[in-house]
């Protein structure tokens, strides 16, 4: 049984838009986040939404990406506008049981990953 499924990736030109979705089955998650991993690089957090709906964005995506959730349908979204070639990578959603994720240090340690990711490729 697939626990988490990311979708919505694709190939777009710079300046384009995509909306990623993360559908989860019965896994409990109070906070959720999107991460990405570019070839040869470490996975990095892109956007996060805590249980109280507070959001956080990496500086590189502020003003261009928007994270949201549909709690009824257990779906997490990432709207990505004004895409740049440096946004290219495999995007994963992470789940955390924490209601409020500590903001200092490596907060990715509080998240687990269950899906295969969805590929985003942005050409110049």
- Please give the number of β-strands: 11
Q: Roughly how many Å is the radius of gyration?
A: 13 Å
Poorly predicted regions are none
Report the major sheet: 7 strands, mixed
* Dominant shape: globular
Query: How confident overall, as mean pLDDT?
Result: 93
Separate helix tally? 0
% residues in beta strands = over 45%
Q: Pairing-aware structural class of the strands and helices?
A: mainly beta
Report how far apart the termini are: 38 Å
Residue share in helices? under 10%
- Helix/strand order, N-terminal first: EEEEEEEEEEE
Main traits of this protein?
0% helix; seven-stranded mixed beta sheet; single chain; four-stranded antiparallel beta sheet; 124 residues; mainly beta
Give a description of the structure.
It is a single chain. Helices cover 0% and strands 48% of the residues. The chain is built from no helices and eleven strands. The chain has strands spanning 4-7, 10-13, 18-24, 31-37, 44-49, 55-57, 65-70, 75-80, 89-96, 112-113, 118-123. It has 124 residues and is mainly beta. The radius of gyration is 13 Å and the shape is globular. Strands 2, 4, 5, 6, 9, 10 and 11 form a seven-stranded mixed beta sheet that branches. It has a four-stranded antiparallel beta sheet with strand order 1-3-8-7, with no helix packed on it.
């Amino acid at each position: 049984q697939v626990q988490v499924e990311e979708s919505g990736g694709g190939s777009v030109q710079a300046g384009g838009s995509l909306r990623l979705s993360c559908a989860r089955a019965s896994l409990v998650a109070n906070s959720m986040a999107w991460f990405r991993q570019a070839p040869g690089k470490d996975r990095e957090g892109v956007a996060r939404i805590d249980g109280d709906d507070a959001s956080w964005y990496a500086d590189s995506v502020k003003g261009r990406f928007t994270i949201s959730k549909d709690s009824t349908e257990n779906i997490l979204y990432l709207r990505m506008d004004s895409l740049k070639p440096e946004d290219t990578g495999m995007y994963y959603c992470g789940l955390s049981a924490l209601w409020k994720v500590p903001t200092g240090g490596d907060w990715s340690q509080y998240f687990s990953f269950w899906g295969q990711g969805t590929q985003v490729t942005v050409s110049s």
